[in-house]
Each structure stands twice: as C-alpha cells, then as structure tokens.
Design brief:
membrane; 33% helix; GTP binding; single chain; alpha/beta; 6-stranded mixed β-sheet
Length: 198
C-alpha cells in the first residue's frame, strides 16, 4: 500500500473554530471546553484513501501557536500546546517554520464575525508569501465559513464565493463544526486536491 504524509495547516483568527474543527475531525467530538483540558498543538489522522493508498495527515492548528515557544518545539515537545488565555488574536504573521513542508491549508472564518472574514485575505497572503509546493506553485487552500448553525450571520454566501474566486482558493464551503456539517467533506476535498497535484 502506498503511504502519503501530508502536513496541513489550519489558520484563521482566534475563536473562529479551528481547534474545534480539528477535534471534531480527528476525534469525532464537539466539546465547548476541551481546549482548556486537552493541550494539543497538532493532531494526526490516518485515512484509508483507497485500496492502494493510505494518507497520514499532520494537522497543525497554527494560530494556536501564538504563545508557543520555539525553544520548546526544538526540544521535541511540540505536542504540548501552550495555553493562550485571550483567544483574541487577530491576524498575526506566522514564522516560516510553521509553514515549512505544508502541502495543504484550511483558512477558516466565522460567518457571524465580519472581521474574521476580512482577515482571510491576510492569512492567504501570508501563506502564499511563506510557503509553496516543491514545483513553486501555491499550496492548495480551502476556505471554510464556520458556525453556519448560528442565526446571526453577517457574511453573505455571495461575498464568500467572490472572495474565494478572487483569492485563489481551491474551493469554499459553509460548515458547522457544532452540527458536524461538511467537516469530513471539506477535508476530503482538500486531500483530493493535494493528491491531484502531488
Ligand atoms: P479557535 O480559537 O479558532 O481554535 O476556536 P475554538 O475552536 O476554540 O472555538 C471558539 C468558540 O467557538 C468555542 O466556544 C467553540 O465552542 C465555538 N464554536 C466552534 N465551532 C462552532 C460552530 O460550528 N458553531 C457554533 N455555534 N460554535 C462553534
């Protein structure tokens, strides 16, 4: 069986649902307070993609590394997530080390928070400035509009579609981590794209 290893980043403003997304995808759970108790910085997921192919996903919750110490990372304790009490980080430019070797990316925002939507432009630019595929192309990136279960929506479907097309995303999807809507589908779509450019 062929085995692939893909490093995938999940980026976006604080509180948009990145950690919940990974927790849902990897552990199949939605738990409002898990962040306080779990302390993971990246997660692993094994996918049996086909009879012939197995994919190991290394999923990095990148904005969660705001208070993350590179010294500690160098010491090999990179699965220990540093506590970030505010959860309020807006756009922060990430160190290149986090982007290194990434083959796919999720940019996430919260449909009830227009600021988090506007930040996606910066997140995507930061990604494209700091990471590229071995052949020089930009990394396949999917735009996810989270919290679609909430009534107080502030970003229209039409503006998401236009933004996604104008900024080079592979595709975009409306999701709800809470309701488990489109979580697995979004990751399948991204992995499919990575497989096709590999
Ligand atoms: P992060 O800072 O981007 O990692 O965001 P978190 O995963 O910590 O989520 C921030 C808050 O949004 C938490 O209170 C989550 O329970 C909540 N949340 C995440 N996804 C959803 C969703 O799909 N719907 C709703 N209503 N709340 C969500």
């Amino acid at each position: 069986m062929n085995e692939h290893l893909f490093k995938i980043l999940v980026i976006g403003d604080g509180e948009v649902g990145k950690s919940s997304f990974l927790h849902r995808y990897v552990n199949g759970q939605f738990n409002k307070t898990y962040k306080m108790t779990m302390g993971v910085d990246y997660s692993l997921k094994l996918l049996y993609w086909s009879d012939k192919e197995k994919v190991r996903l290394h999923l990095w919750d990148i904005a969660g590394t705001k208070h993350f110490s590179v010294d500690r990372w160098m010491a090999g304790r990179h699965n220990e997530r540093c506590v970030f009490p505010t959860g309020q980080e807006r756009f922060i430019s990430m160190n290149r080390i986090y982007y290194k070797g990434a083959l796919g990316c999720v940019v996430m925002f919260d449909v009830t928070n227009p600021t988090s939507f506007r930040s996606c432009r910066h997140w995507k630019q930061d990604l494209d400035n700091k990471a590229m595929l071995p052949n020089g192309d930009s990394i396949p990136c999917i735009l996810l509009a989270n919290k679609c279960d909430l009534a107080q929506r502030a970003v229209t479907t039409d503006s998401i579609k236009r933004f996604s097309e104008a900024n080079g995303f592979v595709t975009w999807m409306e999701i709800s981590v809470k309701e488990n809507m489109n979580v697995g589908e979004a990751m399948r779509r991204l992995v499919q794209e990575i497989m096709s450019v590999e």
